[in-house]
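PROTEIN DATA CARD
Card holder: Metal-dependent hydrolase
Chain length: 278
Origin: Actinomadura harenae
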Amino acid sequence: MIIDAHSHVHSPVDEHIALLDAAGIDRAVLFPTRPHPERASDLGSLRREFALLDDALNGRVDQATAYRTAWAELDAALAAHPDRFLGFGSVPLTLSSAEVAAWVEREIVGRGLRGIGELTPPPGRADLVEPVLRAAADHGGLPVVVHGFAPTTADDLRTLAVLAAGHPKVPLVVSQLGGLNWMDTVELVRDAPNMYLELSTAPTIIAVRMAIAEVPERTLFGSDAPYGDPVVTRTAVERVTPPGELRDRVLGGTAAALFAPDSAPARPGSVPLEPLTE
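Structure generated from the sequence above:
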């Protein structure tokens, strides 16, 4: 089974299904989102969508409105394609610890979602993730996915490693290979048994190669669609791994065990891409 470990709700959702089909991907982890860059038809409209993204990443949003709209889209996508998507839900990081616990109980566990994310703490405030990890631990170790690219800082990534050590039963996934801090991120994840590294938005192909070499059992293929493309990111993994157990683990085996232990076998008719090796 091939699983895209990082994607966002598309509008319309059928465009996302077409991308998954083209890449031969069976299932995708799906996060709610406010921005929709896939709607942009020119640079001006793309800038408007990225302004929404920048506001979200830097904590400049009306969270009540943002969550209401984004979660309605997530619910619709999950209802339309329950066999293709693994739903995740975010948590407002401005809540108190007690409110976080209640939110996770009601909005994550109560809705049957597979995990928490993608969390986007403002730069310098990765410490805000701690109450979420505590709540995730209370529910058997729900996986938690945290944004890893800018504006996440190198200090934020180190903070996440410290927090992960304090909650060893919670799988903590750092997205986007840690962005330009990817070397440090690979080392942090390598040395933390409950941390995982998702490969989307890798700055260079050598970053993908080194991440898989250093953390072969805790590295996850992801596209960050619609910002990335599932065919391109799958091809990158296949370019740096030989056919066999390692490639299968990165492309879906690890994600299936982490996010979807009850997953059925790959869909009949799943389309494999032509293998690429060096």
